[in-house]
Amino acid sequence: MLGASGVGLLALGVVVGLSSPYGVLIAFPGGLLSFTALALGAHLVMPPVLRLIGRLFGRSAVARLAAENALRHPERSSRMAIALVMGVALVMMFAVAGTSAIGVLVASAGGEAPPEMTAGFTGFTTVMMALVAVCGVIAAIGVVDQLALGVHQRRREFALLRALGLSSRQVRLVVLLEAVHLVLASLVVGIVLGTAYGWAGAQAVLGSVKLTPDAAATLVWPVIPPIPLIVVIAATVVVALVATVVPTRIATRTSPVAALAQD
Description:
- The protein folds into two domains: about 1-40; about 40-260, no CATH class.
- The chain is about 80% helix and about 0% strand.
- The chain has eleven helices and no strands.
- Its main location: membrane.
- It is a multi-pass membrane protein.
- It comes from Microbacterium ginsengisoli.
C-alpha cells in the first residue's frame, strides 16, 4: 500500500509537471514513500535479484555454494544490500537529474545556456553527490561488518567444507563470490532506481518548459553521465574487494579440526 501510494504520487507529479514546475511538490513525497516502501520490503525485492545474479557465475560447486549462502538468510542479505542500493540510487538520482536538467536548459536556450546557469546546476549536483557519497561509505562499512559477522558465525561450516576437500583458496572464493553477489545486485538495482527517480524529478520540474513557442510540454530524456557511473561502479568493486579481506581470514585462519572442536 505504501509503495503503491508512493508510485502513484510520483507518477502524478510527473503528469502535473507537464504544465507546472510545482509537480515536483507532488513527486517528492511520492519518491520518499516509494523509497521507504522499498527499504521496508527489501526482503521481497532483493532475493530474486540475488538469485538472478547468482546464475551469472556458472554452475560450479563454489559458485552454487556462494549463491545459496547469499540466499540462506534473505532478510539479512537484503538488509546489507539495501544500504548500498540507497547510496548508489541517490548518487545516480542527482547525477541523472542534474545532467538531464542541463540538457533541457541548453535546448531551451537555443543550443547554448548561460555559463552561470549550468555552473550553478553542476555545482549543486556535485555537492549533493559528495554528501550522498559519504552516506554510501558508511553503508559500505556496515556491509563489511555484517559480512564479517556472518562468516564468523559460520566458522564450523567452513571448517567442515575444508575437511570434506575444499581448499583454502576455494573457501576464499566462496566468500568473495558472496560479497560480489550482494554488491552487484545492489549496483544494478541502485542504478535502475537512481535513473528512474532522477528522470522523474527532472521531468516534474522541467516538463513545463517550452523548447519552442508552440510546444505544449517537454519530454525530458534521461541522461546518464558517464563519469559518475564509472565512479559508482569502481566504488562498488572496491567495496566488494574490501568486504572480503577480514571474512576470508576468519574463514581460513583456523584449522578444520580446531574449528569443529569449538562449541
